């Protein structure tokens, strides 16, 4: 049996598309599996290039077993998704080592397509989508090369254009009007948190996060906006403390069956829209004390936006904030007890300070809070990204009376402890503060570096009130952002992450390029990725209100018919304008010229038979057509290079002789 080897050009294109997809998915792939897969891929390509015989069957089976065990061992700690991705990458490389017939190559293509399809579910930003489209284009060219060798550089891309371009009009119409059904299944979620916020707040955690320039979410105001000092984005409420760190109540303890959802009303409704990045959490980012207007999101008793399913992909939702709002003014005995809870011992200096404050303001909690903030301002506290380590047992005392250098979580957690020690219900809230304005698309970006922590205290007659002790220590953090609040030493040491990117963007040209690309990606996310069933229903309802049911039905039918017509016209135009190579185009033009003269080509005739039949006519132009046909066959099938201008000249001579013969 003659050994079978795939076309080198096709195998190279297919492998290139596969490698591009693997590199894009490295964040979800086990690194060991990716490294082993690429090493096996290089080995397999070298063997195919050198046309070596297959590896022994025992060795191939052993490699397969080892790869399966490897994918399970390194992937299971990260979740089933990592296992599946690892198996796909290793399967491609192993299949390459046993290529011996055409169906093996077809299986290789299917594995590569499967990896790209999974990539479209995991990576959906505009840049990632373009990279995956490049990967699938290369893999499609690799499949096409199996059936027809790619002899010219532009030939495969012209073929792709003819195949894909006519489908665009119909795809656009179907995207807008086809029913957007919810998925019947879901991807297994990797066992890792994507968001930078931690469930536990303790000094040092958010300080490390502040160097990350990763995108957390984007938001916009369709109408009136809020002032930037109101850009407090609520994520989690932390009510349990051990004297050092804070964490939320366990889910089963968050709700009392006798309680009702908090009433939240206000004046000056300001709608806003959020496009959130995946966080794998069930909470959603919300402007402080606002209410959701999107389906599937509820406002819980801690004024948090909650959903039943984790945020596993980019999601668009809406809410309403208020210029002036009125929250629930009743604090249940249970919540009062929770938000006054402190460890029985520890931090004696902080407790003594709280008692002195209470003695000065025995019946005025609001004055006590204001006085404690003023005392903080009068002390030599310092805002820094690199605070010193604190003692484990008395960390609040260590911070308030010795180090006096910290980040937002130091100030928020210490202030909440102080308030509870003074008998005022208090809790820590974590989320994000601020946002970067993009004037080209009219939206704000919130980075992981904008993570923030603040305190809420309960005041009689007012309810829960935000108190941000960080703003008292470093007011520039609130008005001008993180970088403005840092000390010169912090700016010098924080050369990477957010500050490094900010330094690069001080160059006007780079900043404009960044803003332009970010605006395009935002529109892609807002118009394409966020076009869900709710937005489709809103679009159809608006059309129905203007056109009526009959008019809307006619519009939908007409849209489909117009799209189908455009598909047909575009396909015909591309067939004429973009044939597979210049020699075919010239030969087809010659055949059309002879057909107009009265001698059409029969369906069963090949080029040689057609030229031979015409030669019997003994017309002056038949010799010219025979020579053109021979040149065409030599270039197209025998791969003999023929200058295009010579073929074009032969076509001109043929047309001239045809015109002469008709006179």
Structural class: alpha+beta
Radius of gyration: 34 Å
Which strand order do you get reading across the main beta sheet?
Answer: 8-11-5-1-16-15
User: How confident overall, as mean pLDDT?
Assistant: 80
**Head-to-tail CA distance between termini:** 61 Å
Q: Percent range for helical residues?
A: 40-55%
Low-confidence region ranges? 189-194, 495-500
Instruction: List how many beta strands DSSP finds.
Output: 18
Taken as a percent bin, the fraction of beta residues is 5-15%
Describe the global form: elongated
| Number of contiguous helices | 25
Main sheet attributes: strand count, strand direction, barrel closure: 6 strands, antiparallel
Write a structural description.
With 663 residues, the chain is an alpha+beta fold. 53% of the residues lie in helices and 13% in strands. It is built from 25 helices and 18 strands. A six-stranded antiparallel β-sheet has the order 8-11-5-1-16-15, covered by helices on one side. A five-stranded antiparallel β-sheet has the order 7-2-14-17-18. α13 (395-403) links the parallel β12 and β13. α1 (8-24) runs antiparallel to α2 and α24 (622-636) runs antiparallel to α25 (644-662). The protein starts with 7 loop residues before the first helix and ends with a helix. Mean pLDDT is 80; it is low at 189-194 and 495-500.
